[in-house]
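Bumping my old thread because nobody answered last time. Still need a sequence for this structure:
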């Protein structure tokens, strides 16, 4: 990686903001945003570089060498964007999920749908192995989207585990960290803690996230180094399977109350014309197309930044 200037790090932070916004929505993965914006492999490699040997560098050669060894400027810029986004956009995204769900899901559906073509195009060799990995990823992600959420829980050890599992999902394109939190029953607790600045709860989840991130990044890096095409195909399958969750028009069959929040636990996808109420079809199509176009704009920016 060549030397970066201030503008490059600002752009990386903005990509972090986009990742954070996506991760707040239960059904969209920040990993998808990282992939389509051209920073996914660098993110995995940088996270994977944080290990005990680097702390020896810190002791022997000083902080500057340590910071360079872990690609610290990149990680700081990216995670600053993610945290700014989560803390500033969480309330707005929550409001949109309740008040304008069709329009919000339409935008993300177009964005995620386009990313399937984007990532599939990167795969150099489609064969039986890559096709099998693609199908496996799609089936796993689809199955996860059909699981019912658990009851809400506020146990700190469980919130630590939730953070670890959610961050693994967060860096997987297609599988949403926020949706994993809904399945585990800790989504509302964590979102409320972010809103109300309950730092003890947020810190517990963050420690779990760091643990999960450092562990899972090693596996992903190994997969990219040894089975890159199959790994890309698996991730593309994850994204395809996740579309079931983010289809904008749904009929809710059953709901549960989590504190003051009503969350659907059994819902089916329907066509816009079966939707009872204003299907907002024109606006939904426009936003889906906008989301679709955003992918290719990000691709052009990623290509330019590499030149």
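Sorry it took so long. Here it is:
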């Amino acid at each position: 990686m060549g030397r970066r200037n201030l503008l490059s790090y600002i752009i990386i932070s903005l990509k972090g903001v986009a990742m954070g916004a996506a991760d707040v929505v239960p059904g969209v993965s920040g990993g998808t945003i990282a992939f389509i914006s051209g920073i996914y492999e660098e993110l995995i490699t940088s996270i994977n570089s944080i290990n005990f040997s680097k702390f020896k560098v810190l002791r022997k050669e000083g902080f500057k060498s340590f910071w360079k060894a872990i690609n610290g400027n990149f990680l700081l810029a990216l995670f600053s964007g993610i945290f700014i986004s989560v803390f500033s956009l969480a309330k707005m995204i929550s409001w949109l999920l309740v008040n304008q769900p069709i329009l919000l899901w339409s935008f993300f559906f177009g964005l995620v749908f386009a990313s399937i073509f984007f990532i599939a195009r990167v795969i150099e060799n489609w064969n039986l192995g890559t096709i099998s990995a693609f199908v496996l990823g799609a089936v796993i992600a689809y199955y996860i989207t059909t699981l019912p959420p658990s009851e809400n829980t506020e146990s700190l050890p469980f919130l630590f585990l939730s953070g670890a599992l959610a961050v693994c999902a967060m860096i997987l394109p297609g599988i949403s960290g926020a949706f994993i939190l809904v399945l585990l029953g800790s989504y509302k607790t964590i979102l409320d803690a972010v809103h109300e600045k309950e730092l003890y709860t947020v810190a517990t989840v963050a420690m779990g996230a760091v643990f999960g991130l450092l562990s899972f990044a090693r596996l992903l890096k190994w997969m990219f180094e040894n089975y890159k095409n199959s790994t890309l195909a698996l991730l593309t399958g994850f994204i395809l399977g996740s579309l079931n969750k983010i289809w904008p028009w749904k009929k809710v069959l059953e709901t549960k109350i989590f504190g003051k929040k009503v969350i659907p636990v059994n819902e089916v996808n329907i066509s816009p014309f079966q939707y009872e109420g204003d299907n907002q079809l024109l606006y939904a199509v426009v936003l889906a197309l906008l989301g679709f176009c955003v992918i290719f704009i990000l691709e052009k920016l990623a290509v330019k930044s590499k030149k």
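The longest helix spans residues 72-99. Let me know if any region looks off to you.
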